[in-house]
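[Automated response] Your request has been received and processed.

Submitted sequence:
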Amino acid sequence: MTGTTGTADAWGDPGLFGPGSVTWQAHGDPMMWIAGVRALWLQALHPRAVRGVLQNSEFREDAWGRLLRTADFVGTTTYGDTTAAERAGARVRRIHRLLGATDPDTGERYGVDEPALLRWVHCAEVGSYLHVLRRSGYPLTDAAADRYLAEQRTGARLVGLDPAGVPASRAGLSAYFEAVRPELAAGPEAREVDDFLRRPPVHPLLTPARRLLWTRVANLAYGSLPPYAHELYGRPAPEPEAVTRRLRLTGTALRAVPARLRWQLPPKHIVRAMRRLGPGARPTPCKLGA
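Generated structure:
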């Protein structure tokens, strides 16, 4: 019998994290999508990092594709077999090695795979996942949150970082954000990302849907940013209690949709993982414990 990757070795392979990990349970939550949008806003505040994105891609024309590719990478590395996860990481590292960016003020040319830039992208991403999940009511204890960050050192390795240099606890992540704070700014590139996320271009017929659906998602993701991000973007921070209330209401509504329906949406990473490992691999916060 073969697994979803088409190799006999993949059948029964739990991958890099496995069904017993916090990562396996948490990444199956629907609020991950809102967390991903928050991460984009936060990542854009590092001038060197966001410059590497905008100088190497047509962000405005393919922002949705970028978001979906990131989601696919997270899904593959979380729920795929070991070979699929390692291949996904190798592909990202290979692409990053080929790309560079230029500082328009100094003319400096640098690689997008600089450890400091990769670390920022990683920390902004996993920090956003953790923040939105917990704030929206997902039952992650402090101990489970620390386990999640320790597990995510594996994800950091996949993109080319030394795991030893990546925060592995809430305290470590907080200290990292405090240390990197002076480097952050809302420069022209961040403003471009901000403008896109607030008003993404759509076909005129879809404008009402954007106003009805995307605006709510974007406002929720933006509202959950840390106070310094609101300050840098130059808009007043919304009332924290109101943001938390909206996050919890949204989380409750999305989690009320049966998982078997949510997981049928492409690319079906969780469905394939359960086929490979059996029904006991189903992600659920009940497995988190303390």
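Summary generated for your ticket: The chain has 15 helices and two strands. The chain has a mean pLDDT of 91.
If you did not submit this request, please reply to this message.
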